[in-house]
Amino acid sequence: MATIKDVARVAGVGVGTASRVLSGKGSVAQATAERVRRAIEQLDFRPSHAARALLSGSSQMIGVYIPLLKGTFYTPILQLIDTELRTNGRHMVVAFGSGSGAARQQAMEGIEFLIERGCDGIVAMSNALHDEDIVSLGPKQGHLAVLNHKLTGVPEQCFPTDHMRGGVLAAQTLLQLRHRRIAVIAGPANAPDNVERIAGFMRELMLHGIDAAQVITLQGDFSPEGGWAAARALVDSGKKFTALFCANDEMAVGALSYFQQAGISVPKDVSVLGYDDTPSAEYSAPRLTSVHMPWKDITQSGLHWLLNLCYETNYSVIREFPVSVTWRDSVGIANAG
Prior knowledge:
Elements: H1 4-11, H2 15-23, H3 30-43, H4 49-56, E1 61-66, H5 74-87, E2 91-96, H6 103-116, E3 121-125, H7 131-135, E4 144-147, E5 158-159, H8 163-175, E6 182-186, H9 192-207, E7 216-219, H10 224-237, E8 243-246, H11 249-261, E9 271-276, H12 279-282, E10 289-292, H13 295-311, E11 324-326
Parallel strand pairs: 1-2, 1-3, 3-4, 4-5, 6-7, 6-8, 8-9, 9-10
Antiparallel strand pairs: 10-11
Helix pairs in contact: 1-2, 1-3, 5-13, 8-9, 10-11
């Protein structure tokens, strides 16, 4: 395989001159540049990614950190980022949590891994990061876009959404259909976005005279398996409920699957409401009503902000991400029985 030294030798120029022709930086006589181009064509020279990065001072790579590589939530986010980068001749490098150690530690290890790989900028989807973590990144701290989290020290680099509002809308959805006996499958207690959505949900119930302490609440792990197990525990408890709010769609899909096996009709016997409005919600059985979080807009805006910073592009960036409810088939009027 030809090298830049081979190109310089065939063209009869120095390596520095050949490099300037390749990078397009610096002054080179037209005739000399033409000789270098002919040598490149003759040798079928293709500079490696590392060589191009060295010549241009940019790797043309964006790093992405996600907490785990599993399930249906993160896949559309990664696909969106990868498609946009490839369309513009750039590439994505992904790091994800290992499943061991605290979420904050995993996030920092993943981000440092991406920095070491020479990524021009990093998109991090983690709500475990602290302001001091960003400062510790040194010169690279300004080339980090944080999704689904707000840090007071770098608000312009953060793209959060209103999970408290999401919880309120979830409660209002069930209340307007006359549900008063409600069960909840919450996510991990140490996940800040889960804490916010459950707090908003309970606060809205209390405003309508429902004591939060009387709401049947189980904790899940955001997985379909966790939703299945929690739904089974709810049924086995013998406690009566007409509606179930799940803190994400994956747990809701798991609950739907258990109810189907147990002969419980949704929404005739029990209404099920999800959260996130991921693609799995549209194709569950029955199709899942879900609180719509605008993850596409959040991801795209965070990525656009980062691309504008790293490559002087001029993409549109928005900062407001309205939350809504996508109505499908899994929620109905409360069964009076």
